[in-house]
Amino acid sequence: MSVVISLFVSYFVAMTVIPLFCARYLRRPPSESDRERDAGGAGRGWGDRFHNGFNRGFTRLLDHYEWSVRRAVRRPVLTVVLLLGLFLASLALYPFLGIAFFPRTDAGQFSINLKAPTGTRIEVTEQYVARIEDLIRKTIRPADYHMTVSTVGLDPGFASLYTTNAGEYTATIQTALQPSHSVSSFEYMDRIRQRIATEYPGLRTFFTSGSMVDAVLNMGAPAPIDIQVSSPDLNSAYQLARDMAEKIRGFAGVSEAYIPQDMDYPAVRLDVDRVHTAELGLAPEDVVRNVITALNSDLMIAPNYWLDRKTGNDYFLTVQYYEHGHPAIHDFVDLRNIPLRGPNNPQATTLDTVAHLTRLVTPTEVDHYQIQRIIDIYVSPAGEDLGGVTSQIQQLIARTKLPEGVRIDLRGMAQSMVESFKSFAMGLSLAMVLLYLILVAQFSSFIDPFLIMLAIPMGFIGVMITLPLTHTTLNVMSLMGALMLAGIAASNSILIVEFAHRLQNQGSRVEDAVIVACRVRLRPILMTSLATIIGMVPMALKLGTGSEQYAPLARTIIGGLIASVLLTVYIVPAGYLAVYRRSR
């Protein structure tokens, strides 16, 4: 929208304000004596001398260009075929392009989802977290480090929104860098990941950038690729997910493959005897409430508050067992002996008289997608190339033999990328059709628009070369640059075709008309193209906050425009001469 509005305003200014300024400020053309005096170097000032020297140099450039154009149009058909063949050859570089949805941005922070061995006590997990925090502080430069916040185990409060912890053996470590950090957060993530794998091989980790942009693009998932294995039998789905994750870790370009769910969490099953419970005047819910209070507190089942009227602060009032000492629950025997008292029995009884307790292993969490139970495999690419990793995963899914009732779906940013690229291809095709129709209406010809649009594939040659050289992926921003490039490249060739027709109408031969048009129109083509290229350079160099998002767009336009200018000034006159050389 901003580009469209800018072009409308530019057109209005060009048709109204610029003619007035030209009439007011443009000087008369220099006379023959002025040119002779300027040729002798007797300019009136340094500005005139620079202007005259530049014109002499540019005139020599025009002479060389005219000579090369004359050679190119001797065999116009061969020139067109060779340049179009060069475009087809540049398409062979497509496999070397990285494909992504959006450019990766440095959020200046990262998060680590940490897992100790399943069933680890929370105090041991806390010790692991302290060691990892110390490792982080030693890895990050002091000038770049800001702070680290860790959440260990389950948190029933508001902080649970910011963690994925599913048990006492899990933790979330969030690290923030200084705004002026000199090393990328992705570089620090790689260093810390390697050190943890070397020094603490028993810990499982999964790194995320912590960027809000990534969270939105990932559809809420912590990774750009989310493979969902759904089945009524969680155990079979988990085993299939583990096998796939092991294979995915060996793929080229994969940084991590992580399964957030665990199936071997130690647990206790409580089967309440309803008959004995009723004899005590209790309900099964009362038994469960007693167990929850003994192991944690009654905050979640019977919240109560006390208001301090002096300060206005409110506090939770909770009942809980001792955490330490003789009255605390230390083992399974203590758990069986939790006292229960009912209204019909003045004597307290123990938990094992009204309930049967058995040990078992259970999932830490059971995730759902559209009601169905799923096991997730989160996959993070090592770099920005998301398309290559997605393609390998799709091939793995295609050749995996699924048991009955098991289904595998690919979600996250990868799914959005595929859908967006399809819609963008339709939009680009529609743009080319509309451009052709507008040119047909302007030139009253069905042939001239084809000659003008020969400049577009010439620009794409530069795009195919520039993106791999600058290590830039093909993403939504670079595709937007390609769409803008199509309009800019077409405007350059319009100058040549329109002026050649004007000279033909004035009586010039076709060959002379097209060569003169190229010579005269080269200056405005270079002026507009250089203005665009120079204006895009700061963006292409990633200068400024958030510039990673727009650098692919600028690099696409710069590379495509350079190639378009160098090749359009040859293929358009050759195509024009091939079509109109027999006309009068």
Describe the structure.
By secondary structure, this protein is an alpha+beta fold. The chain has helices at residues 2-25, 32-39, 46-72, 76-90, 122-139, 185-199, 212-217, 234-248, 274-279, 284-295, 332-336, 386-399, 413-443, 448-452, 455-469, 476-505, 510-540, 551-580; strands at residues 109-115, 145-152, 170-177, 204-208, 225-230, 254-258, 265-272, 305-307, 314-316, 339-342, 345-350, 355-362, 367-369, 372-381, 407-412. Among the domains are: 57-96 and 445-580, Multidrug efflux transporter AcrB transmembrane fold (Up-down Bundle), CATH 1.20.1640; 106-210, Alpha-Beta Plaits; 265-362, Multidrug efflux transporter AcrB TolC docking domain, DN and DC subdomains (2-Layer Sandwich). The protein contains 18 helices and 15 strands. α5 (122-139) packs across α6 (185-199). The two termini are 44 Å apart.
Secondary-structure-based class equals: alpha+beta
Shape: elongated
Oligomer: single chain
Rg, alpha carbons:
36 Å
CATH architecture of the domain at 57-96 and 445-580: Up-down Bundle
CATH topology of the domain at 57-96 and 445-580: Multidrug efflux transporter AcrB transmembrane fold
Number of helices: 18
The percent range for strand residues is: 15-25%
- The CATH homologous superfamily of the domain at 57-96 and 445-580 corresponds to Multidrug efflux transporter AcrB transmembrane domain
Chain-averaged pLDDT: 87
Question: How does the major sheet shape up?
Answer: 5 strands, antiparallel
- Unreliable residue stretches: none
CATH class of the domain at 57-96 and 445-580: Mainly Alpha
Helix content: 40-55%
**Distance between termini?**
44 Å
Instruction: State the total count of DSSP E strands.
Output: 15
